[in-house]
């Protein structure tokens, strides 16, 4: 595996060229448009073909000089999220904004990799044996450990937060006890509430004090990723990291779903009704979690979360911590809390799971009558939550990681057999019986036909 984030020797070359950072049958037009490449430069790049080799330092220099990199990095998050059949996200998060490519050497050997940027705009390129899919599958974990987590150059849109909306402020004073002047705040201050409670706050220019007939009010204007980090600090903790990553994605999604447009910002209150926000800069650990997952949201439906309680469409922090301690990665934690949703970026289409509500209701009703017969079987454990999804093509199957069952419907006896069969795969997933097709099919027929 070869990788570069700085200019290597000119003898090292990158294939394909900067104009062809994709598989030969993929188009770079969308990325070029998003990157704002001038027509003259696009025409020059068009003279390269897929076999053109350029020195890696030339490729990195070209990436560093491309205009409109922000738009390109946003678009390329989709590539990272889809890489290695969506498995790469578990170790890369939102850190990598790159275009994959695959080609062959003169001796016929396959070579693949990617080229693009990190969140802070640092260009990078990587190549290894096999197609890009093979490279990511073989080296994904190493990349996850090796890639840095810089703070994003574009840390999301502005977020305007009305602080302490449920607790009327009596006064905001400096550390000498003098009332703070209205306007932008810099430094440390003390908030006195109507209940006589005191709270120390800190501002680096992001807090604004308003004084009007309603009394003193505090407004925070911060970036989206700083908002995510502050909510993480206030609502939970940056550890364990996989649980924190799952919550960070949920926080970001909730903001995008519930924030109200206000000029260039999203406006949201600091309250238990929405999300509570720390009135001081986020901790280093929380900022790292926010940066690691930057730009990643859940698409396909509404989300919420709670410290203790879980349920349909609700992440439980307590359960997420337990799952992280059991070894689950953040994407699998989210899949258990939101089985119908997918990881994506803002403005992208919905989940890949098309729910079969009738089939799910039927299965939930049936398993109550199946329970007395199955409870005595070694390894049987009812899934706490699962989703039944429409199968696009191929044979019915169960996705054990995401707790999903893919079937054609509930139209025939065979459909019901398929549904029972795939459900049993989930119910016995922690035991060798769960992989025994003959055992599973025998039980499915026993439950449906007898």
In spatial order, strands of the major sheet run 8-9-10-11-7-13-12
> Mean pLDDT, nearest integer?
85
Sheet of most strands: 7 strands, mixed
By DSSP, the count of extended strands is: 20
Terminal-residue CA separation: 56 Å
How many structural domains can be distinguished in the coordinates? Answer: 3
Please work out how many helical segments DSSP would assign: 14
Biased composition (Low complexity): 1-22
Region (Disordered): 1-35
Pfam family, one: SpoIID
Protein name: DUF2300 domain-containing protein
Report on the architecture of this protein.
There is one protein chain. This protein is 36% helix and 24% strand. With 450 residues, the protein is α+β, with helices and mostly antiparallel strands. It has 3 domains: 2-146, no CATH class; 235-268 and 279-345, no CATH class; 357-449, Arc Repressor Mutant, subunit A, CATH 1.10.10. α7 (224-235) packs across α9 and α13 packs across α14 (437-449). The longest helix has 18 residues, at 241-258. Residues 1-35 are annotated as: Disordered.
